[in-house]
């Protein structure tokens, strides 16, 4: 059997799951580094796929089960290195790893609900990619970020995809070419992070944002998130043509009719998700 098609059984507890009303919280629990091993990525993808099917989920928070240390250290270099002993020097396993990583990142982007990264610690390489792939990102004032692959002879090419779609090109290249670690303030200046706060307020602020978003029409949020990423890859004229059509279809939704009616009547809307 082709090794690329194999799927390992993920160790129990790699992702801690909890619910707070309509907010789903996923905590990476692969100490000490929350490395994105095959098992870890499969566990994350499984949880995101489950969230897609659960219509009661309005927002997903992605965090670390060990805050204050490492949010995520990227790929498991030890796991990758072991497969250099394979007959093909690891090529098939490397391809499997990168393919699965791309699937996880795209699953986040294509999820019909927003994903908020709650970062307290270091997010490096594919861990930084994970932050960049989320729709929003909040961090503590001691968190740091980097794409250091160039330092070990492995350019962060896949992290570059998410990074270059979130920060200015020259700033993305600065991170990719130097491999240097940036602090939280610089990450916010670059556009990688939305908000910075002291550790004791992180969870509280993230939950506040999640609850505000969860209070909106789920259909409207789904439409908006999909349109945001699709139009970003289009030319200006194509983007306007596409989003004009999206607006028309959105106007036909019952939630839009209800929301506009509630605004005019100065009452709270009652969303049905239709």
TrEMBL record:
Keywords: Fatty acid metabolism, Lipid metabolism, Lyase, Transit peptide. GO terms for molecular function: enoyl-CoA hydratase activity. InterPro entries: ClpP/crotonase-like_dom_sf (IPR029045), Enoyl-CoA_hydra/iso (IPR001753), Enoyl-CoA_hydra_C (IPR014748), Mitochondrial_ECH-domain (IPR052377). Belongs to the enoyl-CoA hydratase/isomerase family. May play a role in fatty acid biosynthesis and insulin sensitivity. This is Enoyl-CoA hydratase domain-containing protein 3, mitochondrial. It comes from Hoeflea alexandrii.
């Amino acid at each position: 059997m082709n090794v690329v098609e194999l799927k390992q059984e993920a160790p129990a507890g790699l992702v801690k799951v909890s619910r707070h009303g309509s907010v789903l919280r996923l905590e990476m629990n692969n100490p000490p580094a929350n490395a994105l091993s095959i098992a870890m990525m499969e566990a994350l993808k499984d949880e995101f796929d489950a969230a897609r099917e659960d219509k009661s989920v309005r927002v997903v928070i992605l965090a670390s089960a060990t805050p204050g240390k490492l949010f995520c250290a990227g790929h498991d270099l030890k796991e990758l290195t072991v497969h250099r002993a394979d007959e093909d020097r690891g090529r098939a396993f490397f391809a499997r790893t990168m393919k699965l990583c791309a699937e996880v990142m795209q699953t986040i982007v294509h999820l019909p609900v927003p994903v908020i990264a709650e970062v307290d610690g270091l997010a490096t390489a594919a861990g930084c990619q994970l932050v960049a792939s989320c729709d929003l990102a909040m961090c503590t004032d001691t968190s740091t970020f980097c794409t250091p692959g160039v330092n070990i002879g492995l350019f962060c090419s896949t992290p570059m995809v998410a990074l270059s779609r979130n920060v200015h090109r020259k700033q993305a290249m600065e991170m990719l070419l130097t491999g240097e670690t940036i602090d939280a303030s610089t990450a916010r200046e670059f556009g990688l992070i939305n908000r910075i706060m002291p550790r004791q307020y992180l969870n509280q602020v993230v939950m506040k944002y999640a609850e505000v978003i969860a209070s909106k029409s789920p259909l409207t949020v789904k439409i908006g998130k999909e349109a945001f990423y699709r139009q970003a890859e289009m030319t200006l004229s194509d983007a306007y043509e596409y989003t004009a059509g999206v607006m028309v279809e959105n106007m036909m939704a019952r939630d839009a009719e209800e929301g506009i009616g509630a605004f005019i009547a100065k009452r709270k809307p009652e969303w049905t998700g239709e």
